[in-house]
């Protein structure tokens, strides 16, 4: 009876524990990262009685955490991938919408601007057409500026995200270190750590990996070490090496990430993965590229429109001035420079302009040019950096106003700020140069049938452009220019004089005279405006292969494709994540029906054991009564 | 496969969310009528649509440009037609004045009529458009094209002729400058002009002549000098004798490719000149006629002088008519080209709108049936969720 009682009692205790574990599972059915626990029973060591043995009941061998290391690390990586794509998509889609709006987008503003140019070409004397062109120019420049400020806003949002992410990483690292300590203690005292602690630690690793890609390495004492970037330590056992945000040496608007761990320093470029990695790659990729491209478009537009207006003459008869403020590339000296040199840059060739930011570094004797984002070396540059022999790189000319010291660094932003700088400087619409600088004429007394073409300005900067030129025919086959020389007449051939090109066709008579002169009083001339309207389709960019409008459309397309592919990748990753999560859940998740069944099973077993106790008691009572 | 309870719950919720997302997208499509909502939904279509939109805008601008050019060319055309009418009236007046029954007084009346027609011609040449710009001043549209000072007419414009962009690759010329309409007209018969010397004593008169042999014509001056009433000498500009001939009234005289006819009876010493045509403006031609008619003619020789002058004026007027008609044909041709270009433009507009429709516009039939399908899908997901969530072993404990 003693055996029976002992056996029943062991069962009572064991099933009580089993019921408690089931209860724990039910309680944590919705806890993130919780792994269900199972109870393993073993028979106790039997009592040997001569030739046979009698069982001595049941004991709890283990409360086991049902867990698969492989499935769980798969989940961690799928989840990190998803977080990265999701964050990138979120940021990219903010860019995507605004640029292409049919009413508010750049394309629409450009369209209205060029239409107003043609309006003025239709009626060059009309003040209202002139005023309209000027207001469309203003509207266009304000579109550019508003996109530039949207990019600015996105940049500060990026900074915000970086700061928040770093705080989150540091908080999680701290918690991880604390759990490490508990686990190590548990392992030392009891030879194993509590399942719930391990679950919590896995969950933290998962959350960390969602923010930034990490490497975790398990230690023999049960602790887990965590590294970020290219092996910078974040958590070593119970020690935390927090990350920090720091302003860039060139650009205070740009945050860099600094590690306090081994091989620390600025680690922005080696960090990847997770939402922080996505934020950084958005900033250095799509956002920077779009910003630079927008600036490049603004630069080409302003330069093209200004030089066309400079080529003509305005309503007052003066050579045309600038419509847009001239845009210059920006340069920044690193705050760490020991020399006092400042870099001064100007646009040398719009067609060669690439827009990428470039760092220049002086090692005391040689210069090195690198792409600012990727750090890739640039070899395609020339010059020595002096005023007489400036550096020429990517269509930008750049010189230093003082000698540079060894170790000095400079950042060249050819177009980054250009869109924000685009403003209209012309205030008087009469200064729009609708007329060409010169015109041709035939003498009223000409008796020959020859005709002279309109002048075409090929070199607006020629100092003698508007000088009067007299082409007089000595006979039907030769002519003089300004009373000297003798040139053979070939009908229709181009005659280039002082930056003008004319052609004479038909049969002239001796004594016929043609003239080229300054185009004074020509309020009805629209040739310069026609040329400006043609700028729309002039391929100013990419070495003469893309027009402004094409690049605006290209920019919209680039952003749309990036957003689209982020969206597709995100959806694919979402599926992968769901699958891996299902795998983990299949192994470690709590099924309430299963637990209910267990509950029934353990309850019944418990009740049976209690019954066995009662039977043992009855037996004992019967024995007692027999003795009495 | 083993399934956890939270997995069942999450699967139900996320499938409902997904269905709702799709439903919302279709709903927005239906509400906006657009096939895609952001460029990222279809980057290729978005960029193509931007390009097409600009092409459409540009085409509409070309149409606006064409409308402006059309009205300007019509203005030019009507001015030229008016000019032709005026010149024809002057020509009739000249013919009328050439009639022998006219007296000095009646010719002076005709002269006054010619003066009035000249004013009308000046008014045509100085026509302005609705904005007050002179249409025949070339680029100098603010300056009056032709101004009469001290009896001569001066052109204040220039030779500029504006072009308007009426199609992607088509620029058409605006109104021709006045210098190419009213001025620079070769006087006489277009090759040479004839005149009688004012000192002539006989009543011989000369016609405008014609070019009979272009190969021998070199534009050099020739004088026909009468040695006697029956004999004439041909001399060049320097007085060198080129030939002689016997004169019979009404005979053709041919010299250096030029054929002229002298009629009436010239006296010895009378002289007629043939000179290469000079460029002259229409106004001076008309006003020479008016002056000739206004001047009273006392005797037969003065009358003959006048006849020669009227002959010259008539042929001059023909030149002016030729010029005006050539310009009319020119602007008519441009109007036609413009009409064709407008057809091309509107055809292009139609095609672009079609393409834009294909790219941007939602297929409603498809979208509505998709919407219906998604709505049913969502309902099913909701019902399934509610049913599955009701299943639990705990219900039976």
Note down, in words, how this protein is organized.
The complex is a heterodimer of chains A (628) and B (397). In chain A, the strands form nine sheets. Chain A has a five-stranded antiparallel sheet, with no helix packed on it. In chain A, strands 23-31-26-27-28 form a five-stranded antiparallel sheet, with no helix packed on it. A four-stranded antiparallel sheet of chain A has the order 5-6-7-8, covered by helices on one side. Helix content of chain A is 45%, strand content 21%. Chain A is built from ten helices and 31 strands. Chain A is elongated. Chain B has 397 residues and is an alpha+beta fold. Chain B contains six helices and 15 strands. Chain B is rod-shaped, with a radius of gyration of 41 Å. In chain B, 35% of the residues are buried. At the A-B interface, helix 2, helix 3, strand 23, helix 8 and helix 9 of A face helix 1, helix 2 and strand 3 of B.
Primary descriptors:
heterodimer, A: 628 residues, elongated, B: alpha+beta, four-stranded antiparallel beta sheet, 52% helix, rod-shaped
Short description:
The complex is a heterodimer of chains A (628) and B (397). Chain A is α+β, with helices and mostly antiparallel strands and 628 residues long.
């Amino acid at each position: 009876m003693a055996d029976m009682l002992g056996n029943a009692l062991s069962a009572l205790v064991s099933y009580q524990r089993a019921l408690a574990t089931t209860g724990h599972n039910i309680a944590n059915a919705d806890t993130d990262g919780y792994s269900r626990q199972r109870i393993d029973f073993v028979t106790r060591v039997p009592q040997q009685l001569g030739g046979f043995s009698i069982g001595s009941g049941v004991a709890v061998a283990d409360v086991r955490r049902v867990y698969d290391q492989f499935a769980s690390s798969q989940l961690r990586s799928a989840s990190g991938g998803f977080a990265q794509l999701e964050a990138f998509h979120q940021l990219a889609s903010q860019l995507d919408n605004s640029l292409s709006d049919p009413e508010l987008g750049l394309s629409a503003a450009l369209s209205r601007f060029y239409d107003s140019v043609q309006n003025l070409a239709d009626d060059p004397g009309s003040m209202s057409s002139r005023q309209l062109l000027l207001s469309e120019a203003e509207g266009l420049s304000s579109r550019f500026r508003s996109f530039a400020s949207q990019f600015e806003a996105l940049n500060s949002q990026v900074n915000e995200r970086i700061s928040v992410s770093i705080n989150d990483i540091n908080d999680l690292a701290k918690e991880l270190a604390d759990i490490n300590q508990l686990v190590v203690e548990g392992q030392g005292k009891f030879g194993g750590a509590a399942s719930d602690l391990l679950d919590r630690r896995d969950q933290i690793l998962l959350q960390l990996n969602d923010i930034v890609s990490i490497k975790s390495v398990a230690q023999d004492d049960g602790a887990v070490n965590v590294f970020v970037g290219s092996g910078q330590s974040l958590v070593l056992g119970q020690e935390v090496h927090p990350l920090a945000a720091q302003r860039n040496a060139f650009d205070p608007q740009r945050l860099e990430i600094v590690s306090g761990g081994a091989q620390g320093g600025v680690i922005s470029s080696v960090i990847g993965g997770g939402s922080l990695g996505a934020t950084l790659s958005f900033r250095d990729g799509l956002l920077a590229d779009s910003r630079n491209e927008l600036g490049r478009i603004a630069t080409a537009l302003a330069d093209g429109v200004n030089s066309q207006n400079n080529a003509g003459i305005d309503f007052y008869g003066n050579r045309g001035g600038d419509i847009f403020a001239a845009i210059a590339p920006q340069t920044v000296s690193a705050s760490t420079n020991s020399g006092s040199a400042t870099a001064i840059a100007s646009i040398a060739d719009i067609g060669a302009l690439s827009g990428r930011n470039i760092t220049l570094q002086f090692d005391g004797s040689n210069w090195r040019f690198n792409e600012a984002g990727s750090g890739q070396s640039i070899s395609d540059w020339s010059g020595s950096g002096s005023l007489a022999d400036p550096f020429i790189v990517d269509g930008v000319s750049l010189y230093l106003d003082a000698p540079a010291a060894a170790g000095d660094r400079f950042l060249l932003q050819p177009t980054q700020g250009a869109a924000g700088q685009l403003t209209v400087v012309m205030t008087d619409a009469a200064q729009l140069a609708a007329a060409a600088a010169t015109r041709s004429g035939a003498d009223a007394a000409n008796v020959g049938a020859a005709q002279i073409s309109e002048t075409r300005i090929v070199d607006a900067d020629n100092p003698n452009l508007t000088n009067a030129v007299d082409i007089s025919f000595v006979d039907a086959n030769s002519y003089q220019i300004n009373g000297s020389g003798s040139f053979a007449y070939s009908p229709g051939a181009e005659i280039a004089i002082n930056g003008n090109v004319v052609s004479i066709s038909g049969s002239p008579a001796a004594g016929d005279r043609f003239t080229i002169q300054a185009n004074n009083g020509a309020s009805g001339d629209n040739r310069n405006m026609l040329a400006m309207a043609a700028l729309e389709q002039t391929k100013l960019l990419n070495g003469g292969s893309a027009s402004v409008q094409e690049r605006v459309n290209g920019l919209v397309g680039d952003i749309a494709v990036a957003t689209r592919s982020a969206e597709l990748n995100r959806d694919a990753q979402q599926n992968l994540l769901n699958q891996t999560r299902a795998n983990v859940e299949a192994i470690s998740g709590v099924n309430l029906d299963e637990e209910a069944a267990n509950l029934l099973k353990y309850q019944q077993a418990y009740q049976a054991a209690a019954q066995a106790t009662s039977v043992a008691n009855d037996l004992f009572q019967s024995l007692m009564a027999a003795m009495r | 496969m083993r399934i956890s309870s939270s997995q069942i719950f999450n699967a139900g919720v996320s499938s409902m969310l997904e269905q709702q997302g799709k439903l919302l997208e279709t709903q927005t499509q239906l509400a906006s009528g657009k096939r895609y909502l952001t460029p990222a939904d279809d980057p290729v279509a978005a960029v193509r649509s931007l390009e097409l939109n600009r092409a459409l805008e540009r085409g509409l601008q070309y149409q606006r440009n064409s409308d402006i050019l059309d009205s300007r060319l019509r203005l030019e055309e009507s001015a030229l037609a008016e000019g032709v009418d005026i010149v024809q009236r002057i020509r009739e007046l000249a013919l009328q004045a050439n009639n022998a029954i006219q007296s000095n007084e009646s010719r002076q009346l005709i002269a006054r009529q010619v003066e009035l027609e000249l004013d009308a011609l000046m008014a045509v040449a100085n026509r302005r458009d609705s904005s007050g710009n002179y249409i025949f001043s070339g680029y100098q549209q603010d300056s009056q094209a032709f101004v009469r000072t001290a009896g001569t007419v001066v052109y204040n414009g220039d030779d500029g002729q504006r072009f308007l962009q009426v199609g992607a690759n088509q620029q058409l010329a605006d109104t021709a400058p006045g210098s190419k309409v009213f001025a620079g007209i070769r006087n006489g018969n277009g090759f040479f002009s004839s005149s009688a010397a004012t000192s002539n004593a006989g009543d011989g008169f000369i016609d405008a002549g014609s070019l009979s042999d272009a190969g021998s014509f070199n534009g050099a001056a020739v004088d026909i000098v009468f040695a006697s009433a029956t004999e004439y000498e041909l001399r060049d500009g320097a007085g060198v004798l080129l030939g002689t001939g016997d004169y019979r009234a009404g005979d053709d005289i041919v010299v250096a490719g030029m054929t002229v006819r002298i009629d009436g009876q010239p006296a010895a010493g009378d002289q007629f000149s043939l000179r290469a045509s000079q460029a002259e403006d229409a106004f001076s031609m008309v006003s020479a006629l008016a002056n000739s008619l206004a001047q009273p003619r006392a005797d037969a020789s003065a009358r003959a002088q006048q006849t020669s002058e009227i002959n010259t004026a008539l042929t001059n007027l023909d030149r002016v008519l030729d010029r005006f008609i050539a310009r009319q044909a020119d602007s008519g041709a441009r109007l036609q080209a413009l009409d064709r270009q407008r057809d091309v433009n509107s055809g292009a507009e139609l095609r672009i709108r079609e393409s834009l429709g294909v790219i941007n516009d939602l297929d409603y039939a498809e979208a509505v049936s998709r919407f219906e399908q998604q709505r049913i899908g969502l309902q099913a997901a909701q019902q399934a969720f509610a049913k599955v969530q009701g299943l639990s072993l705990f219900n039976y404990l």
